[in-house]
C-alpha cells in the first residue's frame, strides 16, 4: 500500500512539473534552472528541451485556433491582443471539462473581472464575448426539441387554443445586455471603424437552437420576455393561463399595452421563432 | 498443454471483424456517410457526450448505417488524479447508445488536477507508472463493460526518469490490465524517427496478439520533428509497417485517420481502397496458410 502511494506521488510530481512548464510561460522560462525531474542537472538531453518547447507550442496553437473559432468577432476586434488575452485567461483558469470547446467557457467573466486591463478600449468586450459563447452553447445544448408532429397545427376554437400547452424551447437562453450588441456585431462584421465612445442601450436577447439545429438570436420586448419568464417558471402552462397571467401583470399592461390582440400576436411570433412550442 | 487464454483474449475471439473504417469528422461527415467504401466509423466521444443538435443528429445517422467505436482523447488514463467518474458515466452512456463493440483511448495523460491540457502527453516510462495505468485501465474496462484498447501515442520527448523502453512499458500495461491494443503504425513510424529507434524492433516487443484495431495516417514536418497531424497522405514506410503488422496479428479493424487539411474526398477513398487491398490480400493469404497448416496437422495425426 505504501509502495502504491509512493509510486503515484512520483508520477504526480512529474505530471505536476510538466503541467506547470507547459501551461505557464514563466515556469517554462525558469524550469531548467529549478529543481525536480526537469531541472538542467537531471536533463542532459537537448531533446527534452526541444520536446518541451514543441509541446508548449502545440498546446498554445491548439488553444489559439479553438478560441478564434469560438470568438471570431473578438479576435477581429482585438487583433494581436487576442493572443495575450487568451493566454492570460488560460493561465488563471483551469479547463475543467473534458469537452474541447468548454475550455473557452468563462472568457466573458474573465474580461469583465479584469475590464480595467482588457476592456478599456472596448467597454462592451465582455458582452461581445458572452454573445459569441452563447451562440455555441445553444448549438451544442443537449436538450431535445419536441418534433413538429407533436405540435398543434390548427386550433378549431378559442377554447381549444386556450387549452394548448406552452412548452419552452429547452435550448433557449435569455441574457440582458447593456450595449446594442447586434448593432456592434454588424459594425465589426462589415469592418466599420467603431466610435471612441459607446452609448449604452440595454436590450434583452434570447439565443436558441431551432428544429433544423441552426441557432437563432432575437431581441425581445418586455411582454415577450415576460411570457418566456412565465413559461420557465411553470412548465405545464396553457395558452389561456399564460394570457391571464400577462393580462393581470399590472406593470406590463400599464406600460406596454398588453391588449389581447397584441398578446396573441406575440405568442404567434414566439411560436414562429421556436422560442415556444404549442402542444 | 497450452497457456490459458486471458479473459480479454477470449473476448477478442468474440469480437466482430469490422473491416476498413474512417473517423467521423464534422468537415467530411456528409461524404463519409454517403460513401460505400467505409465499413465502420470511429468517433471522438468527447465531441458527442452530452451534446445535442447537429452532433447528435450526425451520430444518429451514422449509427443507423454503421458500427461505431469510440476513440477518446481525455480519459487521461495515465493521470495521477483519481479517475473522473462523471467522464466515465458520460462515456458509458454513449457507448451503450451506439452499442460499441469496443472503445479506446491513448496511453498518456491529458489533465492534471482537473485541468485539461488538450494534448496527449507522454508518461514517465517506469514500472510504477505502468502499474498505475494498468490498474486504471482494468477498472475502466470493467466499468464500461466492453473491451478497452490503449493506443500508442506519438510523442516528442522521453520523460526524464523513464527507466524502460516504450514498447516494454506498453506491453507491461496491456498485459497487466488484460486489455487490448489499438496500434497506430503512423505513431510508431513518427516516434522511430523523432526518438531514433528501429520501428520493427519496437513492434517485435509488443504482444501483437492483443491488437484489435489499427490506425494508419499521414503526418507533417517541423524543423525538428515529425508531427502526427493526420493531415497528409500516408507515406510508403508507414504502409510497409502496416503490412508488417497485418502479417503478424489478427486485427478486427483498420482505420484511416484524417483530421485536418482535408483533400477531395475521392483521395480519402483511394487511400481506403489501398488499405482494403492490403488487408484483404494479407488476410486471404493467412487464411489459406492456416487451412494448409491445419491440413498438414490433420495428415500428421490421421490414423493409418
Keywords:
heterodimer, A: 279 residues, mainly alpha, Outer Surface Protein A, domain 3, 2 domains, three-stranded antiparallel sheet, 56% helix, elongated, B: 304 residues, alpha/beta, TIM Barrel, eight-stranded parallel beta barrel, two-stranded antiparallel ribbon, 10 helices, 12 strands, 44% helix, 18% strand
Description:
The complex is a heterodimer of chains A (279) and B (304). In chain A, helix 1 packs across helix 3, helix 3 crosses helix 4 and helix 6 runs antiparallel to helix 8. Chain A is mainly alpha-helical. Chain B contains ten helices and twelve strands. Chains A and B meet through helix 1, helix 3 and helix 8 of A and helix 3, strand 6 and helix 5 of B.
Question: Brief description of this entry?
Answer:
The complex is a heterodimer of chains A (279) and B (304). Chain A has 14 helices and 5 strands. With 304 residues, chain B is an alpha/beta fold.
Q: Distance between the terminal alpha carbons of chain A, to the nearest Å?
A: 60 Å
What proportion strand of chain A? 5-15%
Q: What strand order characterises the main sheet of chain A?
A: 2-3-4
- Which residues of chain B sit in consecutive blocks of at least 5 with pLDDT less than 50? 295-304
Mean model confidence by pLDDT of chain B: 93
Radius of gyration of chain B (CA) equals 19 Å
Assembly type of the chains comes to heterodimer
Q: How is the CATH topology of the largest domain in chain A named? A: Outer Surface Protein A, domain 3
The N- to C-terminal Cα distance of chain B equals 25 Å
Query: Number of helix segments of chain A?
Result: 14
The radius of gyration over CA of chain A amounts to: 26 Å
Strand content of chain B: 15-25%
Largest sheet of chain B: 8 strands, parallel, barrel
User: How many strands appear in the DSSP assignment of chain A?
Assistant: 5
